[in-house]
């Protein structure tokens, strides 16, 4: 019974100008999945700050030992200019951004089937924008508080977090503007 | 004819033994084996006893404060009168440890020459298997590992247990507390907002429903009234939905054009 209903609704969604509708839907889903991918990688991989013999941040620090071949995983030193509180805040907001991105995808799929015709996907848009806001807070705190007078450069996780921010902003805006097609 | 044994035995066997007449013998053998293993285990237990000593793993304390290092033990034997507790200290980075406390023959002997002279106090209760010590006025030089060793004759085989003392200027927040707090608070707020939103919607719908009920109640007369009430209850919500979707359809069509 449930599958019949779901099938019928899917039918309604897709037969109305089905090809363009399908393209738009798959495009948006692909963008959203890319956002989630970037946010997760940025949060998980410890590569926010690089120097010649070390890359670090968010959860731990990889330090190169004397032999030039061995990488050792260490805890981030607690004397980080009272940084352990700020670092935990960055960790918290980065994880929240990932959670909101995934929730937004679930809400989008849910609304795809339950939303009335002609209505906007506001809930998914709002959640995606929340995710964008969270990762922005994390990035701002990190950029402002850490590594201000050190020699080094920002690593790929940091850049991916910024790209994730941009994509989240984009997809959030698309969800708010998008309406369920009627025909 | 008197009842012969041969007549009785088959009857009893069909009731109790059914197809296996040797079941009784099997259970007897199993029981005896069980009793044998139990006695062997019980006899062997006292020989495999060892004293188990418990201390903490790590202790965090502030400079200038007092810290209580607790040491307790478990032994199969009763606590004898010749039980001994001894604490030794190894500073961070050093290889040797020095003895700082010893309890024997019912009397405690505290450090009076080493790094803890006049700062150490025995606050344990040997009768209750507690051999804790109290160190006053901590300093950064007190960072190190404290080892407790207990001997309860004749139960003397055991491994001493160590606790690490860490002295801080300011007790740090453990890793992940702030992270977890931020995540928990934000998600909690989200759930709260969603719950309030749905509650408001539910209350508003109920209010509308009850208003329409009272309206139709006044208009109708007796049975007619109640019938109308029922019909209107069934029709009204769907009417509202249909009206809303019609409106939106028209809106979007206009916008499309």
From TrEMBL, chain A:
Keywords: Glycoprotein, Membrane, Transmembrane, Transmembrane helix
Location, primary (coarse class): membrane
A Pfam family reported for this protein in Swiss-Prot or TrEMBL: PMP22_Claudin
Top-rank lineage group of the source organism: Eukaryota
Membrane-crossing residue ranges in chain numbering: 21-44, 89-113, 125-143, 155-178
Location of the protein in the cell: Membrane
Topology term for the membrane: Multi-pass membrane protein
Record's GO cellular component terms: plasma membrane
UniProt entry tagged with the keyword Membrane: yes
The family this protein is said to belong to: Belongs to the PMP-22/EMP/MP20 family.
Full protein name: Epithelial membrane protein 1
TrEMBL record, chain B:
A Pfam family matched in the record: V-set
Stretches the record annotates as Disordered: 215-257
Transmembrane segments: 177-200
SUPFAM superfamilies reported for this sequence: Immunoglobulin (SSF48726)
Subcellular location: Membrane
Basic and acidic residues bias locations: 244-257
One of the GO BP terms on file: myelination
Membrane topology listed for this record: Single-pass type I membrane protein
Source species, domain of life: Eukaryota
CC annotations in GO: plasma membrane
Gene3D superfamilies noted in UniProt: Immunoglobulins
Residue span(s) of domain Ig-like: 46-164
Sequence similarity: Belongs to the myelin P0 protein family.
Name by which UniProt lists this protein: Ig-like domain-containing protein
Organism in which the protein naturally occurs: Electrophorus voltai
